[in-house]
Amino acid sequence: MTSNTELTNPKAHYFKKYKWWFLAGAVALIVTNLLGLAIPAQIGQAVQTIRSLSDAPTPDLHDQLILAGQLIIALAIGSAIARILSRILIFNAGRFIEYDIRNLLYQKLTTLDASFFQKYPTGDITSRVTNDVSYIRLLYAISFLHIINTSVAYIISTQKMWAISPTLT
Length: 169
Fold this sequence. Notes:
By secondary structure, this protein is mainly α. 88% of the residues lie in helices and 0% in strands. The chain is built from 6 helices and no strands. The protein has helices spanning 4-8, 10-17, 19-54, 61-111, 114-119, 122-164. The longest helix is centred in the middle third of the chain and has 51 residues, at 61-111. The N and C termini lie far apart (54 Å).
């Protein structure tokens, strides 16, 4: 049976129901952005190491560059894993919402009189139950993903630019 919250504000109801999935996905997106934006900084440090040691090469220059390369690879792998995890969490939350709404629609359709089914073509009803509910899943999952990802990337990038040059930022 449906609750009052589900009927009065269905968007909030589903976000609340799967809030831990969305929250964990948002945390994974933050980690993704932090690791992804650390790569250019690490490349910059490697270039500075090369520049500072080019005048007087030392035996450990090769080891420092190998270490920098390994760190960049580790950051990229960590970022990829966090990105995959964020998508799994957020998209699964969207799928759970889709499942709930489909079940709710099915329950409603089973209570309707035969006159309803005579009034509306079967194709229209089928389209609403399949396509429209899939669009709702995309609304929840994709929009949440892009809003969080864009906001986090913007905040982190702005902070990093500010640390380099407030005037230029």
